[in-house]
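ok trying again, last paste got cut off:
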Amino acid sequence: MSSASVTRKATTGTGAKKKAAHLPALKKVAAKRIASAAAKPTSPQLAKASARISVAPSGAKARKIAESELVSRKARPGKTANPLAPERVAAILDALEKAYPKAVCALNHRNAWELLVATILSAQCTDVRVNLATPALFAAYPTPKAMSQAPLPALEELVRTTGFFRNKAKSIQGAGRVITQEFGGEVPKTMEELLRVPGAARKTANVVLGSWYGIAVGVVVDTHVLRISRRLELTKETTPERVEKDLMQILPQKKWIEFSHQVIYHGRQICYARKPHCADCTLERLCNSADKTWSSH
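nice, full thing came through this time. structure:
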């Protein structure tokens, strides 16, 4: 073996050893930063994480709201006669407004950047769990620039509890980089620009535009909005993109933002995927879904 080869091998080995030597220190720093997030949440922490959630009415209160709306006539079992009739759509919106009059995005945030990151982290994760993780994340890396420069292992540890943490860490690091380099550190205000941000698909962009900027360019369609829109026969589609397109044609634009918030709360607390609580549903008289667990008509 030549002396040059020995030198290269020695240099490579030294570099690898130095890199390995830094890993324990990096993990130690990350561990300190997530100590509060990793610990079992206290009651005050849970209360803060749940502070923005609208509680669904139940019992007599729910039935009173339901009884104030019209009854959707059945064409046959499981099917409503003229489900897209304007008066029926208006009644659905009215019942949702009565049930969730102050519905807002459940993700805790103080600016558009925090909402963008929290929404990326909310994929396949509850909003409460995200709200428990983000305080430590934003304390360590509060700006897009800081997030873009954060060591990936540190980000992974900070978002570990939200699931799929490796992919999410890459996404929020990439989001910080793009927003810093291409948008001057400011979260953009258009759908086209937001879709250039790593981790921001159309649903995420709609959340940021609607909940922070108050710009209604679409309807947020998550698993709850998709399921309930189909149960209410507002759409027959099965993909978020096509369901959104249908809802944008049916709903008044001024209702696009709050409709999603209200339906998401309804899906989480009442209209479950399995065994929905139809007896406590404010939309029960308007719904003829085949999988209802109780019916008044």
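cool. Confidence is low (pLDDT under 50) at residues 2-23, 33-38. Strands lie at 74-76, 79-80.
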